[in-house]
Specification:
Elements (H helix, E strand, L loop, with lengths): L1 H24 L7 H20 L1 H9 L2 H18 L2 H6 L2 H28 E4 L8 H20 L7 H12 L8 H10 L6 H25 L4 H13 L1 H6 L5 H21 L8 H16 L4 H15 L4 H25 L12 H12 L6 H10 L14 H4 L6 H6 L1 H14 L1 H11 L1 H4 L30 H17 L1 H4 L3 H18 L8 H13 L9 H14 L1 E2 L11 E2 L2
Helix pairs in contact: 1-2, 1-6, 3-6, 4-6, 4-26, 6-26, 7-10, 7-11, 7-24, 8-9, 10-11, 10-13, 13-14, 13-27, 13-28, 14-15, 14-16, 15-16, 15-27, 17-21, 17-22, 26-28
Length: about 575
């Protein structure tokens, strides 16, 4: 009788959760029957298990008040990021209240269940001898799977940004609009094989090595063999990794370095800072910081701020940490200053950092906001007033690459531009806030805005004058992978192709890790946090690549939360050691 009652409760809860969650995300006519069916089955199964373990789940969550508060706040934020705001505004208030409350309860239950699984079990944090050859073994499934992507999209996928790097190498005329470091990688590797495929092979090897090194590092500190292999195989088959390994973007290499830095910080926590007192540890830290600083134009502050965070926490090793911080900063300034000048390498256009202010100004002008005659006259010198109507809330290109946009006026007196922008913001707070939330929606919103877009990846080689084109080794393989990617994008866009999901999971896993390893477990979130902060300041478009590092690194936050420090077990003493 109890099982029947549990099943009935689970069916009711699962159906209510499915209807409510989908109702806050999109209109009924826009939701496929398949999505209703699949989500209903998953929800019913979830609530059946949840109901059986409900007492233990809430005991785990309530054991520490900050865990409960953290999950509650994350649940509210997740609800907000799932809402389709036009539907929210136009729906009757009583219907909104019902579906929002049921959805919030569903999200809270889901996060609580994840917390319960991680809190009740895990691996004791202890030094374990693991052969370094394990790195190679963990690399093999990733290389094997990702090579199929290369064969399908041979010689690699290239967007206009990719072709810009390639053109610089062919013409030997360089600039840093797109990071010069990635252009140098192309220049060096194409001496071995004059094909984009050599860059893809480099990215596959680098990405698989960093992932495998991370898994190996966790094995060194107690992670079980089975879950290590599960992580390696999962990351091998995840479409995000497969397709990004084949795209010639500096964002791929940059994101790999973000992952590497996060792993280094996690390993520092697990080693209690001992690696900072070795030459190999400091050398690794320096190389990773250099990769982040040079492979994206917003990378230096992320490298510097992370190093400062490490310096504050591990003050006893301040001399060792100060060396890479000073070296990376000095080398960056020398290379992008005197060296670029000496070799006539044009620096990035400063106007590129003005994406958010420019979008907010365009929003005010296009919506006939409050503007003085003096402000209108100044803006007209940059772009004729009638052309500001080209504004797109989610893409800066319509303005900054407009034929009539005079970025030299902005660059000539950046102070004046920012002063005018500040006054416009003060005069039109509602418009600029809305414009900012739309422009940065990729970062904070799981549900794609109804009038927005997401550019998750690129396939094929864009048309070009250099003779580069897509030439699949197997057309059948190309068709299968393209169909799989598009199906994944259509059916699971919110789950895999909106980075906010991974950001939320990273915070949740860090919260759980702080319970099992101590407050120091929050330190590894710094690279992700600072990278996201820079994107919030200057996101130019809704391109997944700007935050793909969050997806790439999320598995390591999960593995981090699987470890526990002796003495950090739940107070009831009920802990299962995974095998």
């Amino acid at each position: 009788m109890t099982r029947v009652l549990n099943l009935l409760i689970s069916v009711a809860a699962g159906l209510a959760a499915t209807i409510s969650v989908l109702a806050i995300m999109q209109a009924r006519q826009d939701t496929s029957l398949l999505k209703y069916v699949v989500l209903s089955i998953v929800s019913i199964c979830f609530f059946y298990v949840f109901w059986m373990y409900r007492r233990q789940i809430f005991q785990s969550v309530l054991e520490k008040s900050y865990i409960m508060v953290g999950i509650a706040l994350l649940s509210v934020y997740t609800l907000i990021s799932l809402i389709d705001w036009p539907l929210f505004i136009n729906r009757p208030w009583y219907e909104t209240a019902i579906v929002d409350l049921i959805s919030l309860a569903t999200i809270f239950c889901f996060f609580s269940y994840l917390a319960f699984l991680l809190l009740r079990g895990g691996y004791e944090w202890k030094r374990t001898d693991v052969s370094k050859w394990q790195i190679l073994w963990y690399m093999l499934p990733m290389i094997f799977v990702w090579m199929f992507y290369l064969l399908a999209f041979f010689p690699g996928n290239m967007s206009p940004d990719s072709l810009n790097h390639w053109r610089q190498v062919e013409n030997m005329e360089f600039n840093n609009w797109h990071p010069f470091a990635y252009t140098i990688v192309i220049l060096v590797l194409t001496q071995l094989w004059d094909s984009p495929a050599v860059i893809v092979l480099f990215q596959i090897l680098l990405m698989s090595f960093v992932y495998a090194y991370g898994i190996y590092s966790f094995r060194q500190y107690g992670l079980g063999k089975k879950i290590a292999w599960v992580a390696a195989l999962l990351w091998a088959v995840l479409p995000i990794n497969g397709i990004f390994s084949t795209i010639l973007w500096k964002d791929v290499v940059y994101s790999i370095f973000i992952v590497f830095l996060t792993i280094f910080v996690m390993k520092t926590v697990l080693q209690e800072g001992r690696n900072l007192r070795t030459w190999s540890g400091i050398a690794t830290f320096t190389v990773v910081l250099l990769g982040i600083a040079f492979f994206r134009n917003n990378g230096l502050p992320i490298a510097v701020l992370t190093a400062i965070g490490m310096l504050i926490v591990y003050r006893q090793s301040w001399k060792q940490l100060l060396s890479p911080l000073v070296l990376v900063s000095a080398l960056y300034l020398v290379v992008t200053g005197p060296v670029f000048t000496a070799y006539n390498i044009q620096s990035a256009n400063p106007n590129e950092s003005m994406s958010i202010p420019t979008q907010q100004i365009a929003a005010v002008v296009s919506q006939d906001g409050e503007l003085t005659e003096e402000q209108l006259a100044y803006l007209d010198t940059i772009l004729p007033i009638e052309d500001w109507d080209a504004y797109n809330p989610y893409l800066t290109d319509r303005i900054k690459f407009h034929d009539n946009f005079k970025d030299d006026v902005v660059v000539a007196d950046m102070g004046k531009y920012l002063s005018i922008w500040f006054d416009i913001v003060r005069q039109n707070p509602a418009i600029v806030i809305e414009a900012y939330l739309k422009q940065t929606s990729l970062v904070w919103q799981i549900n794609k805005p109804i009038d927005g877009y997401t550019n998750p990846y690129t396939i094929d080689v864009d048309p070009n004058e250099m003779g580069l084109e897509t030439n699949p080794v197997s057309q059948t393989l190309y068709d299968v992978l393209e169909y799989g990617l598009e199906a994944s994008r259509y059916h699971t866009e919110e789950l895999f192709w909106r980075p906010a999901v991974f950001s939320i999971l990273i915070i949740l896993f860090s919260l759980i890790a702080s319970r099992k390893l101590g407050a120091i477990a929050w330190l590894p979130i710094l690279p992700v946090l600072f990278n996201t902060a820079t994107i919030f300041v200057g996101l130019p478009a809704q391109d997944y690549r700007y935050q793909v590092s969050n997806a790439m690194v999320s598995i390591f936050f999960l593995l981090f939360a699987c470890l526990y420090k002796k003495g950090k077990e739940p107070s009831d003493g009920e802990r299962t050691t995974w095998t």
